[in-house]
Design a protein that fits this description.
The structure holds 2 protein chains of 2 kinds. Chain A is of the alpha/beta class. In chain B, α2 crosses α3, α3 crosses α5 and α4 runs antiparallel to α5. Classes of the chains: A alpha/beta, B alpha+beta.
């Protein structure tokens, strides 16, 4: 992997990207006769063969409903499903699988907390703090809760670099604050937030904190106990796993007090005509038949990541980030939206006078997949007074050469509009 | 340059994008509608002044991609002076052209310059960029104040 950009001095991190790329069959896709350059990883990552094969194996030889059968297959499916839960627990270092709730995705996880924790512990006049850089999944559930309870939503503002203004957070936090919910990493700006500070400060007055890990889980190790997050959510599909899978980690002391989110099978111990006794954690929050194959696939994704090593993945992505910054900065027309000091491999940019949608279409001709739009973070767009941005985001399988292609592609866009 | 890119981004489209016709807010106007495409952030206001059955003046304001902006620019230039019925017929013709629902060898030269947007039919996600201003036109003609969305 030799970068074309001569101003860049790469530090080999010992990750065999070419070998990794072979694990992702979709990367061989041809778009308009060109090799796909997939830079839309913040939207979803691709799935390695290990995940695809694992799900196939489940359907071919293990398929059955879980937690409810005495027969062989049901026991096997239950064992594999619960083994995936244990893998997830280990991956985030939760204290117990009782604290690992399986959901449909980060959005589902946040809605669960908003509806269950929110309806029990948040009332009229109480306050919830989020930030101006949240994606819609960490805004709308709280707006809905506020609408139904009379609670008030407060926003931590961001500065021009796209970083949280912590002094403003200090002022917003008060005795009425019942919950703080912020992202560890912005999907629209790439900013990595100092959530440790937010958690510490909130805990000083007993306010629990939800950390949205949707955009951070795939980029670095996470230890929810060390972080001391009260809730931590993420989606499986951004972690090389299947869509329709997600996780809510919650401290047992909160989960125990929270009422069930949805009613149905699996979340009950006993149902009579008069009354239902709810099941224990984590099943209390898992009504109905879950995405069994998907969850087992997520377990395989975690095995895959562990087999590479998250530290190596992070180191590789840090190099990609440095290289992309060098490349994008080499085009003076590129205006980066968000220039945080601490950044994940996510870049939002605009070109003066050229709409991001046109950038996206022309890059697509070159086989380059980026996201063009508001990234489900319209308040961020409002903050910067822009309708949309183009966004390139990287994953473990991306290369320096692909960033070179992006840079060339952007030059092509400028040519078309010159 | 990739010929497909040129096919979509023809010079006339780029020109209208850079220097749109009828851009701004006319005074007076008696019809107005707002068009919004939340997916990509295209957003426009359309102002019309009709006398009797005729569109005597028309303008638009707002921002969007080159396809939506040039489409709005060319549309306003084309329907100015036409009757409401003529504009509605043109909407149907234009819609048929960009969605590709007409005959494959259909001749759209009656749409004059607008025919350059024919290439859009090859890009399903961009069809609504090209048609946003037209949907907004139909909405504006129907009632004085409307917000419409192509989502």
């Amino acid at each position: 992997m030799i970068p074309l950009n001569s101003n860049f001095e790469s530090k080999p991190v010992g990750l065999d990207v070419e070998k990794i790329r072979k694990d992702f069959p979709i990367l061989d896709t041809q778009v308009s006769g060109r090799q796909l350059v997939y830079l839309d990883n913040a939207a979803t990552t691709h799935k390695p063969v290990a995940v695809i094969e694992r799900m196939k194996k489940y359907y071919e030889s293990e398929n059955s409903n879980i937690h409810r059968g005495v027969h062989f297959l049901s026991q096997l499916a239950t064992k594999e499903y619960e083994s995936a839960r244990e893998k997830i627990r280990g991956f985030i270092n939760a204290g117990s699988t009782r604290e690992v709730i399986i959901t449909r995705g980060a959005t589902d996880s946040i809605n669960l907390v908003a509806q269950s924790f929110g309806r029990k512990f948040i009332g009229a006049g109480d306050e919830i703090i989020i930030s101006e850089m949240e994606h819609h999944a960490n805004i709308v559930p709280w707006q809905m809760l506020c609408e139904s309870t009379g609670a008030v939503l407060r926003y931590i503002p961001i500065n021009d670099n796209g970083e949280l203004i912590l002094e403003k957070f200090d002022v917003l936090l008060n005795s009425r604050t019942k919950l703080v919910s912020v992202t560890r990493c912005s999907n629209a700006l790439g900013t990595i937030n100092p959530v440790e500070y937010i958690i510490e400060k909130s805990h000083q007055q007993g306010t629990p904190v939800l950390i949205d890990g949707s955009q951070s889980i795939q980029h670095g190790t996470i230890d929810v106990q060390k972080l001391d997050a009260d809730f931590f959510v993420f989606s499986g599909h951004k972690l090389y796993g299947p869509t329709g899978t997600g996780v809510l980690y919650g401290k047992e002391k909160y989960l125990r007090e929270m009422p069930p989110y949805q009613g149905g099978g699996d979340m009950i111990l006993n149902v009579s005509m008069e009354k239902t006794t709810y099941n224990d954690l984590p099943y209390k929050f898992e009504a109905g038949t879950p995405n069994i194959a998907g969850v087992i696939g997520l377990g395989a994704a975690i095995d895959y990541i562990n087999s590479i090593g998250m530290d190596l993945i992070s180191a590789h992505e840090k190099e990609l980030t440095r290289y992309a910054l060098t490349g994008l900065s080499s085009i003076w027309q590129v205006i980066l939206i968000g220039e945080p000091k601490n950044r994940a491999p996510v870049f939002s940019f605009i070109l003066e006078g050229i709409h991001p949608h046109d950038i996206g279409t022309i890059l697509d001709f070159e086989g380059i997949a980026i996201r063009a739009g508001h990234h489900c973070a319209q308040p961020v767009m409002e903050r910067y007074c822009i309708p949309a941005t183009a966004r390139a985001s990287f994953a473990v399988y991306n290369t320096f050469e692909e960033i070179d292609k992006l840079v060339l592609g952007i030059r092509r866009v400028l040519e078309v509009f010159s | 340059m990739n010929p497909e890119i040129r096919e979509l981004y023809q010079q006339i489209i780029l020109d209208h994008n850079k220097n749109p016709k009828n851009f701004g807010k006319i005074d007076p106007y008696n019809h107005h509608a707002e068009g919004f495409n939340p997916l990509c952030g295209d957003h426009l206001h359309l102002y019309l002044h009709t006398e009797g059955d005729r569109i005597v003046n028309i303008s638009f304001e707002g921002g969007g991609c080159a396809i939506s902006k040039s489409s709005a620019s060319m549309m306003t230039a084309f329907v100015k002076g036409k009757t409401v019925q003529e504009a509605e017929t043109l909407f149907n013709r234009f819609h048929e052209m960009v969605t590709g629902t007409g005959k494959s060898d259909e001749d759209y030269s009656d749409l004059d310059k607008l025919a350059v947007l024919q290439g859009v039919r090859e890009f399903p996600v961009r069809v609504k960029c090209a048609s946003l201003s037209w949907h907004t036109l139909v909405a504006a003609l129907k009632q004085p104040e409307t917000v419409i969305s192509t989502e």
